[in-house]
Amino acid sequence: MLPIPAPKLLLITASFCLCSQNPTSDEVLSWSQNFDKMMKAPAGRNLFREFLRTEYSEENLLFWLACEDLKKEQNKKVIEEKARMIYEDYISILSPKEVSLDSRVREVINRNLLDPNAHMYEDAQLQIYTLMHRDSFPRFLNSQIYKSFVESTASSTSES
């Protein structure tokens, strides 16, 4: 993997500093100990997404977020539409953003498409979450994107 050029890295770091709620240095460091905590923090998810983009696996996070959005939905028509869009965007073998799922989970999804519900992708979502946690997250913590962000929050905290 090629390193991100310094100007782009500065741009990425700067864009996160513009968040409405800047994470503290301690919060950013705590992400390294707790994947769930990082995923709940908007700045953490955004930074992780930038990293996944460099690894060409951003679709995993986008799928997970789409499932989170679907689970909040109550309107049956909207659920059906969102479930169909998630299928087309992330499950279909024809999609350029297809996520990697085992055949058992795919079979369950195909059955659930007959009568979509807000929780129909939970098994798939868990499988992708686990993949990100075990596979991408350790590399993220060793990435220049994360290390530079840690440094930038540490220096902005010490300047305050």
Task: Provide structural commentary.
The protein has 160 residues and is mainly α. The protein has 2 domains: 6-13 and 23-56 and 136-159, Regulator of G-protein Signalling 4, domain 2 (Orthogonal Bundle), CATH 1.10.167; 59-132, Regulator of G-protein Signalling 4, domain 2. Helices cover 72% and strands 0% of the residues. It has helices at residues 6-17, 25-31, 35-40, 42-54, 58-72, 76-91, 103-112, 122-141, 144-159. Helix 2 (25-31) packs antiparallel against helix 9 (144-159). The N and C termini lie far apart (35 Å). The relative contact order is 0.16. Mean pLDDT is 89; it is low at 1-20. It holds the Pfam family RGS. Keywords: Cytoplasm, Glycoprotein, Membrane, Nucleus, Signal, Signal transduction inhibitor, Ubl conjugation. This is RGS domain-containing protein. It is found in: Cytoplasm; Membrane; Nucleus. One of its GO terms (cellular component) is cytoplasm.
Please write out the topology.
Elements: H1 6-17, H2 25-31, H3 35-40, H4 42-54, H5 58-72, H6 76-91, H7 103-112, H8 122-141, H9 144-159
Helix pairs in contact: 1-9, 2-9, 4-5, 5-6, 5-8
Keywords: Cytoplasm, Glycoprotein, Membrane, Nucleus, Signal, Signal transduction inhibitor, Ubl conjugation
InterPro entries: RGS (IPR016137), RGS_sf (IPR036305), RGS_subdomain_2 (IPR044926)
Protein name: RGS domain-containing protein
